[in-house]
Design goal:
Helix content: 10-25%
Distance between the termini: 17 Å
Length: about 80
């Protein structure tokens, strides 16, 4: 399921927020703390809102973490 990582290679994680929350709200604080945990475990993370998914290739990531309900046709 996961690709085999080479030495010194980081797991790439895409974190998707399904809506545009306020920057100081609880959702953003939760996502930031989850990013911190992933980075402590040695992963590199990128966070996008669902409205920005057209600019990323999800196949480039090892793990896709969605914070909340997300409905996308064909995903």
């Amino acid at each position: 399921m996961f690709r085999k990582l080479k030495a010194r290679e980081f797991m790439k994680i895409m974190m998707i927020i399904p809506f545009d929350p306020s920057t100081g709200g609880g959702v953003m604080r939760a996502v930031k703390s989850q990013e911190t945990v992933y980075r402590m475990l040695g992963a590199s993370t990128e966070t996008v809102h669902a409205s920005e998914l057209d600019r990323v290739n999800l196949r480039d990531y090892d793990l896709i973490h969605v914070h909340g309900p997300l409905i996308i046709g064909g995903l």
